[in-house]
Amino acid sequence: MNQAPTYSVVIPVFNEEDGLHELYRQLTEVLAELDAPAEVILVDDGSRDKSFSIMKSFSEKDPRFFAVKLSRNFGHQMALTAGCDYARGEATITMDSDLQDPPRVILEMAKKWREGFEIVFAVRKTRDVDSRFKRISALLFYHTLKRFAAISAPINSADFRLVDKKVLKSFQRLREKNRYIRGMFSWLGYRQAEVYFDREARFVGETKYPLWKMVKLGFDALVSFSNAPLRLCMGFGLMMAVCSFLIGIVTIVGKIWHLGAFVAGWASLFVLISFIGGIHLFMLGILGEYLARVYDEVRGRPLYLVSELSGSRPYEPSEFKS
Predict the structure, then answer these.
(1) Which of 26, 44, 19 is nearest to 205 (CA)?
(2) pLDDT tens for residues 291-303?
(3) Where on the phi/psi map is residue 9: left (φ > 0), alpha (ψ -120 to 50), or beta?
(4) Which CATH architecture has domain 7-226+303-310?
(5) Which residues are within 8 A (CB) of 239 and not within 5 positions of it... i.e. 6 or more apart?
(6) What does the alpha-carbon distance between residue 233 and residue 251 come to, in Å, rounded to a whole number?
(7) Is the terminal CB of the chain with fewer CB neighbours within 10 Å at N or C?
(8) C-alpha closest to that of 184 among 136, 138, 217
(9) List of E strands, 165-253
């Protein structure tokens, strides 16, 4: 593809060999309906199956497709970052490879972009294909983030979005190691719009994003965009100080006025010390998490490493690629 595309579609892939051919079919149908040339950047995030071989075959037969293979599994957010660093379109669309994000929604997002919006979020109208637990936990997460974080991402939006080139350039300046990309794009500002769609079931296979990864992503989001955990530590400390002061006052008054003997024995003392010690360890853990993130930044390691590229490209990738 010698002509610079108007649209770049970035898709991270992890062990999706069974669904890639259907993804290719649906994408090519959408690309044919777009109002300008487009490219597709597939990023293999350390897959252990034949995903990259299939992606490579797409890039060899279709010049619109470009495959990036990371040296190992760096995680979904890093794979998205890598794809964005290789994007060269005037507008970049990010989406997942499991086809729960219908590619046809790209057409609606492109229309919003043509209307002048610089970030277009794809928001799920329904989550009927998700379990009850996942729906409830996601709702709690979005409301918690909206309440305590310095961002306001649309509820039920994920990583399916379109961003203008100038937004992408601003995003590429944010090179923090612990990344919550949904929040990062919301934090950037610019003119934002939403399109709505019905979330599909996975085309094939099982989710590659288990519960522990969702919990980690949620924690990254809260710590990256909020000081609430630190304020929680301060609140706990203040509460314990007040309680200790009141207990001391009650004890002194009881001794002076001989109001009766207090409960004696080791059990009550052990419980109190254990409770206070547990709170201290909890607060130290939160402080340690913030400190570890500072250490991550100071080490200055690259966000990802690329082991192989497939597809002809007439340009050097972004200066931020690291």
Answers:
(1) 19
(2) 777 877 788 788 8
(3) beta
(4) Alpha-Beta Complex (3.90)
(5) none
(6) 27
(7) C
(8) 217
(9) 192-198
Q: Give me the residue spans of the domains in the chain.
A: 7-226+303-310, 228-299
Contact 95, 101 (CB under 8 A): yes
**Residues 53-106: tens digit of each pLDDT:** 999 999 888 999 999 999 999 988 899 999 999 998 899 999 998 888 889 999
Count the neighbouring beta carbons within 10 Å of the beta carbon of residue 2. Answer: 7
pTM: 0.74
Decide the pairing of beta strands 157-164 and 38-44: unpaired
Helices (H), 34-164: 51-61, 76-86, 105-114, 132-148
The tokens describing 225, both together, are 């965009």
Number of residues assigned to the chain: 322
Closest CA to 178 of 227, 241, 225: 225
DSSP characters over 232-300: HHHHHHHHHHHHHHHHHHHHHHHHHHT--PPPPSHHHHHHHHHHHHHHHHHHHHHHHHHHHHHHHHHHT
